[in-house]
Design a protein that fits this description.
single chain, Rossmann fold, 9-stranded mixed beta sheet, 6-stranded mixed beta sheet
């Protein structure tokens, strides 16, 4: 039965056959040329069979070095080394036949000359073909965009090589910016390093004056982020130059001849946060979760779903996903079924405000570790629905904590917010009340009777979370603007959801361990420096390749009910104490009796269920004396948060 190779294989076989033929002709030609160089006055041709033997010797010697399978368009240093080795091996094999035939060498130097001539004849067409391909002009009237590379390391060299391998290169590199100034004036792949990243304004100005301004600044330095990236974006914005990231290094691999077309990536908004990577105790997290039954409330939300992902990756015995949103719960369950199909899961539709339902669930499921992320967190929404916010955030947290403690849960981790510090909103005050109750439970658990550890973790805004400013700006940008910012001085702390949840798990390890920090202390994630919302808006406009206040308007709308200009991470009576773990701080506890706080929350919940908003708020203000309500969205005089730092 005849075997017909697949259609995709046939072109490759043709290329290999062509390589074999060309290399054989070159090897045959090397024999008389080497004889002439060895003895210009002698018989340079020799017997015809010696030329045929020269070709055969190369094909034989080239097998270990895979000469016939080399892809000339991507010929590099490794290929040329193979050519050199095959040439030397051929020069060593060739004299064997001459000796057997009794033919002398034209001169003693013949083997060396044979190797050198063969090396040049084989390498020259490979180099010439690659150079020809790299200088190939764009076809079909397509013009390549001039680009300036930011980064002068191996990634830039790889990008330039990958670009040169394109049949129709979409970009034309005019130069590079290095991370420092010491490389200025040097060259990479023949292209000049025009200056350092700090000199971007001057370099772009000179290029504009010379009529050589690039269309795009291409970031090849994967580590470039934060303030340096922001300054570079401002310089690019001033000249009307777009910024994009180079493809990942794996996408630039020239060894794959059928790779996809080289395309730039957008710069992510997370790159502007300037947050260094924090080392996490992954082994401690695995010990905490592995083989245990874990329950996550609010599992369909931004924080809850990321908690579910990271917990699932740590190998729990069972993962229970609890939420009152059918769609959100379905989404995270489907995702985990695809990514962590081996982890036993159970989805539970339930509301944390339903005390009886929670008691039955916890008695049945017997979780050992609970992450409580369920909450109403949107400040204006809770201001418009204050009783719902109090019932979910305060009373709901109490129900979860009481059910967990009664079911013998080892530790409960409560997700809190910076808005609970000196709150001006009902959302923040309700979360502070939840903090107080959980602090009291944790203090009680440290007593002789022991009990469930209650670990509270407080942090600021999660970048891109549901209802946050980033998705809002993205929707407004898609419509062409304007981008709405409440106040020019509005600042917020930001962190990526993955980093926040990683640190929550880190805090869980520390808080549930034998060397846990003070009783009732609140873990506070180190959020870095706060970000001005108007600056974030301008950067998002620039990332979209547009100019703020020119292409897209930024409009100030005034503070919303419950908002303040600055958020805080620590109350004035919560001095910071170290935890010994990077990224984690500790707020010294303000003691509270859980029994007293629990009864007060019951009174507030009764007032809420009875529709008595005035009584509920009066009780809340009595329990949280630092609560300074801002229902009108006014700019508060001497904003206390203006001096707060993480």
């Amino acid at each position: 039965m005849r075997y017909d190779p697949p259609m995709a294989v046939r072109p490759a076989l043709i290329r290999i056959a062509l390589n074999v033929g060309v290399d054989a002709v070159l090897a045959g030609a090397a024999v008389p040329l080497a004889r002439w160089l060895a003895d210009p006055t002698g018989d340079w041709a020799g017997p015809p069979w010696t030329i045929v033997w020269g070709a055969a010797a190369l094909l034989l010697a080239g097998l270990p070095f895979r000469l016939s399978t080399q892809y000339w368009r991507f010929a590099g240093a490794g290929d040329l080394l193979g050519v050199g080795a095959a040439s030397i091996a051929t020069a060593a094999i060739y004299p064997v036949a001459l000796h057997e035939a009794g033919l002398p060498f034209p001169s003693p130097a013949f083997p060396v000359l044979h190797a050198l001539v063969l090396m040049v004849l084989l390498a020259a067409p490979r180099i010439a073909y690659r150079l020809m391909q790299e200088s190939h002009a764009p076809q079909d009237g397509q013009e390549s965009q001039p680009v300036l590379l930011v980064g002068a390391g191996e990634a830039s060299d790889l990008f330039i090589r990958a670009l040169g391998a394109e049949r129709r290169p979409p970009y034309r590199v005019i130069g590079l910016l290095s991370s420092g100034r010491s490389q200025t004036g040097r060259r990479i792949s023949g292209l000049p390093i025009l200056g350092g990243i700090d000199d971007a304004v001057g370099v772009l100005g000179r290029l504009r004056a010379a009529g050589r301004l690039p269309d795009v600044l291409v970031l090849t330095d994967a580590e470039l982020s934060g303030t340096k990236l922001s300054a570079l974006m401002e310089a690019a914005d001033h000249e009307g130059v777009r910024i994009a990231r180079a493809p990942r290094l794996t996408a630039l691999d020239n060894s794959a001849p059928d790779r996809t077309r080289l395309e730039l990536r957008p710069v992510a908004i997370e790159d502007l946060l300037n947050r260094p990577q924090v080392p996490l105790d992954r082994e401690g997290m695995a010990r905490l979760v592995q083989g245990r039954r874990v329950l996550v409330t609010g599992a369909g939300g931004t924080i809850g779903s990321e908690l579910a992902r990271q917990v699932a990756a740590l190998g729990p015995e069972q993962l229970v996903l609890l939420d009152n949103s059918e769609f959100a719960l379905w989404q995270i369950d489907i995702e985990l079924g695809e990514s962590h199909s081996g982890v036993p899961r159970r989805v539970v539709l339930a509301d944390v405000r339903d005390e009886a339902r929670l008691r039955l669930l916890f008695d049945e499921l017997r979780p050992e570790l609970v992450f409580h992320a369920a909450a109403l967190k949107h400040v204006p929404m809770v201001e418009a629905n204050p009783l719902e916010g109090l019932l979910t955030n305060a009373d709901g947290t109490r129900h979860v904590a009481d059910a967990a403690r009664a079911a013998g849960v080892r530790a409960m981790v409560v997700i809190s917010t910076d808005k609970a510090v000196n709150p001006s909103s009902l959302m923040g005050a309700s979360k502070r009340l939840a903090e107080m109750y959980c602090q009291g439970l944790d203090i009680a658990a440290r007593g002789p009777a022991g009990g469930m550890r209650c670990i509270t973790v407080r942090f600021g805004n999660v970048l891109g979370s549901t209802g946050s400013v980033v998705p809002l700006f993205q929707r407004q940008l898609a419509r062409g603007g304007p981008l709405t910012v409440t106040h020019p001085d509005m600042r917020r702390y930001f962190m990526t959801v993955r980093e926040a949840v990683g640190l929550v798990l880190q805090a869980s390890v520390v808080g549930s361990g034998d060397a846990a920090p003070p009783d009732g202390g609140i873990f506070v994630l180190d959020m870095g420096e706060p970000v001005k919302i108007v600056d974030l808006a301008r950067q998002m406009v620039r990332l979209a390749g547009l100019r703020p206040d020119v292409d897209v308007e930024i409009r100030f709308t005034g503070l919303r009910p419950g908002e303040k200009l600055f958020e805080e991470l620590f109350h004035g009576r919560e001095p910071t104490t170290p935890t010994g773990h990077a990224g984690l701080l500790m707020a010294t506890p303000r003691t509270a009796d859980p029994a007293i706080v629990g009864r007060a929350i019951e009174e507030i919940a009764a007032a809420c269920r009875g529709g008595n908003e005035r009584l509920a708020l009066a009780l809340l203000e009595r329990l949280v004396p630092e609560f300074e309500h801002n229902p009108d969205g006014r700019v508060m005089t001497g904003d206390r948060a203006g001096t707060a730092h993480a």
